[in-house]
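hi! just following up on the protien thing from before. the input was this:
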Amino acid sequence: TPFKEGSLLLNEQHFYKNSILKQWTSKHAHPVTLRQLANFGKRMTQEKIVSSANFVRTEIPTRLSLKIDELQQLPYQITSNHHINQVYQSYYHCFNAFRKIEEIKSLQENEKFCKFVYNMLNDHLIVLPHLMMGALEVSILGLMSQKDLDEFMSSMLRSRMSRRVIMDQHISMSRAFMENQKNNNHSNEVKPPDYVGEAFHYCSAHRHLRLSYDKITIFMKSLYPQLQMPELQINGDDVKFQFMTNHLNYIFTELLRNSLKSTIVQFMKLNKLHEPVSNLKPPPIIVDITNTKSELTFKISDQGGGIPPEKMETLWSFGKPPNSAMEHLENFHKIPGLTIPKKLPIEEHHYFRDLSERTHSYLTDDLGNILDTIGTMEMTSHDDSESTLESLASRPFELTLGISLPMCKVYTDYWNGVLEASSMYGYGSDFYLKLRKLGNKSDTAQLDKA
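and the predicted 3d structure came back as:
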C-alpha cells in the first residue's frame, strides 16, 4: 500500500472521498482585524458573548478545513512524512470536533464551549514541534526548495496564530464577563481608547527584558560558576505597550540568549580560557530602545564574534542545508525526556474535560525544557509566562535546533513588526526588533490568515 501504516486518516478513502471537507472548503474565512475584536469586546453583554462563541464555533473549522486542503495539495512524499502526517491528523480531528458542536444559546453552554476550546488549545501544543521536525526532514530529503519551505511554514504558523488569537480572545472575554457577573459588577465599563483585547496585556519594555535576561543568566551561571555574566545595559525609556506576553517573552529570550551565549564563547576564545575565571568580565549586551508614536525599536548589540557569512543566508529560514538539517534533527532527538507519541491522543470526548485539568500527560516532565515550552509560548495566560521563560532559558546550549530565529521572525512579522540582523564577523552582531504599537489607530494587524 502507498499509504503509511499507523495513520488514522491518511488512506485512500479519506484522502480522495471526503465530501464533508469539501463542503467546508467552499466557505470563506472571515477577514478579522485585531481592532474589530477589540471594539467588539469594549462593552460586553451576554448577547455579545454568545455571538462571539458562535463565531468561533463556525470560523475555526472553516479555517482548519482550508489548511487541511492545503496539506492535501502537497506532494504525497511531504504529506506522508511522519511529523507532517501528525499535524494533518491533529488538524482533521480538531476540525471534526468543532464542526459537530451545535449552536450555543446561553452562558452555560458557552462555559462548556470555553472548556472545550481551552483543552483544544492545550492539546495542540505538540503540533509546533512536529512542524519543525517535519521541516528539517523535508530539508534533508530536498523535497522542497528553501523558498517554498519557508512559505509553507510561514503560512502554517501564521494561520495557527490567527486561530489561537481568535480562540484566546473569546476565552479571555468570557472569563472577564463571568468575573464581573460573580462580583455583581454589571456596569461593564467601556475600555480605554487604546484597548486591543482581553488577551493582550500592558508590557513593560525594561521589565520583560530584565525578566528574560535574569532567567537566562541563572542557567548560565550554573554552566560557568566562576565567570561574571555579561551585563545587560538598557538605554531608553521604560515604555509600556500592549502585546501578547508570551510572544514578547519568547522573542526577547531567544535574542538575548543568542547574544549571551555568543558573547561568553567569544570572550573565552579571545582570552584563551579553558575554564572561566572570576576576575575577568565579558563585554556587555546593550539594548537601545527607541520610542515613536507608532512603533518601538529594540537594538540588541553584542560582541559575540558575529555570524559566519555562510550562515547569514539561512539565518531566518526553516530550510537548512542537508548537513545542518541533519544535525538539528539529531539534536531534537537528544533532548532530555523526548517522547513524542506515534499518534496524537485525540478523541472528541477528550476535549470536554474539566478546565483545570492539564493535558500534557503524553509528555514526560523533562520535555518541558523545549517542546512543551515551544507550544506554551502561544498561551496568553500570565500564569505560564515565567515558567515558559525558565524552560526556554535552560535548554541545553549545545543542542541547537536551527528554529529559534526563524520562529522569532515569523512571530514578529505576524504583528507587522520587523526583525533584522547585521553582523561584523569576528566582532559582534546587532539585532533590530521593531514592534508596532497594537493600540495605535494605524494598526493593520490582521487575523485573516486562514
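Residues 128 and 159 are 12 Å apart (CA to CA).
Residues 345-376, 380-389 have pLDDT under 50 and may be disordered.
cheers
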